[in-house]
Amino acid sequence: GGGAYGAAKAGGSFDLVRFVQQPQVLARIVSAIFALIVFSCLVGDGYTSRPEDPRLFCVFNGNEDACRYGIGIGVLAFLACIFFFMVDVYFPQISNTTDRKYLVLADLGFSGLWTFLWFIGFCFLTNQWSWTRPQDVYIVADSARAAITFTFFSIFSWGLLLTFAY
């Protein structure tokens, strides 16, 4: 047996190649990249202005909440990926089964919540994009579509992380 939450395997040396080849580490890296793409598309090209009005507005139907939501969940997902990546690095060194259990449950809960939030984000951004007038966003349309696309991909990458945590 491996013990509770892999506690019998605690200790030992760190092997970078073996670590990076773990499926949950690869899924976490992919999820971080997707989150980075989503929030960078929205921060970089998520706001535009009209020729007659110099004020910036969100490209998703002028709904500021759509841009804020995408940026918010993207930034938090990226930071969470970094945090859980560090947990993955130190996890084999943790011998206390209670600590290991709480880390696994935190990963499980956060991954489940973020899978749901990415789904909500995809629905919200897609809905707002469908109501956006093409003449308002012809320059930044590709960034908006990329944010929607990678929000959709993030549903599955976080779902995969949820599966690995389970």
TrEMBL record:
Its main location: membrane. InterPro entries: Marvel, Synaptogyrin. GO terms for cellular component: neuromuscular junction; synaptic vesicle membrane. It is a multi-pass membrane protein. It is found in: Membrane. Residues 19-166 form the MARVEL domain. Keywords: Membrane, Transmembrane, Transmembrane helix. The chain crosses the membrane at residues 25-48, 69-91, 103-125, 146-165. Signal peptide: none annotated. The keyword Membrane applies. Pfam families: MARVEL. It comes from the Eukaryota. Belongs to the synaptogyrin family. PANTHER family: SYNAPTOGYRIN (PTHR10838), SYNAPTOGYRIN-2 LIKE PROTEIN-RELATED (PTHR10838:SF19). This is SNG2 protein. It comes from Cisticola juncidis. The lineage of its organism: Eukaryota, Metazoa, Chordata, Craniata, Vertebrata. The gene is Syngr2.
